[in-house]
Write a structure and sequence with these properties.
The protein is α+β, with helices and mostly antiparallel strands and about 190 residues long. Helix content is about 35%, strand content about 30%. The chain has a single domain, classed as Nucleotide cyclase, GGDEF domain (Alpha-Beta Plaits, 2-Layer Sandwich). The protein is built from 5 helices and 8 strands. Strand 2 and strand 3 form a beta hairpin. Helix 2 runs antiparallel to helix 3. The longest helix has 26 residues. The chain is globular and about 50 Å long. The N and C termini lie far apart (about 50 Å). This is DUF2652 domain-containing protein. InterPro entries: Uncharacterised_Rv2561 (IPR020503).
Length: about 190
């Protein structure tokens, strides 16, 4: 059986660092409000650049079918998302008079995947999706706020520059780009 629904594209997963501790140390209603606000901020900044497959807890599974992904475009979007996230954390901390110890990491992966519908939900399927989720559980990152770009994404990208400020090359997986070492132009 041939599946014509298989495409190549980008999997992007923004995920909160510190989420488990946050859930256990924050009142239910307050935590729900904060998480909803932070996820909404990421969705607004995305501005329909990526499609949404699902939202689960503290992560969004974004995807985009793209045969020639741009490292610069994706990197710029991630910086905007991170800056908006941090501004929202500061705003909510001040409004709610509480400390919000959450940071943001991103996984950017590339490969083939398919999509199927269950009711109103669009689900992604394939090894690329599983690999992206496995990359979330890495122990490579030395700082909590970063973007991990997989080899498969970097190999497909037509404008990746190795050795830029704040990048750490990892032969096993790709490149980690730390936000703290990146100049903030936004």
């Amino acid at each position: 059986m041939k599946n014509t629904n298989i495409h190549e594209g980008i999997i992007l997963i923004p995920d909160f660092n510190g989420f488990t501790e946050f859930v256990f140390n924050t009142k239910l209603y307050t935590g729900q409000y904060i998480v909803r606000e932070l996820l909404s901020t990421l969705l607004e900044v995305n501005d329909q650049h990526f499609d949404i497959s699902e939202i689960e807890g503290d992560a969004i599974l974004f995807y985009k079918y793209d045969s020639k992904p741009s490292f610069q475009t994706v990197s710029k979007l991630l910086k905007k998302m991170r800056n908006a996230f941090n501004r929202k954390v500061e705003e909510l901390s001040e409004i709610l008079n509480t400390s919000i110890d959450l940071s943001l990491k991103f996984i950017v992966h590339y490969g083939k995947f398919s999509q199927y519908n269950i009711g109103n939900f669009k689900k992604l399927y394939g090894p690329t999706v599983v690999e992206a989720h496995q990359l979330l559980k890495n122990d490579f990152a030395e700082q909590p706020s970063y973007a991990l770009f997989s080899h498969s994404f970097l190999d497909k990208s037509n404008d990746f520059e190795n050795g830029s400020n704040g990048q750490l090359y990892l032969p096993e997986v790709g490149v980690i780009q730390y936000f703290e070492k990146i100049k903030q132009h936004i």
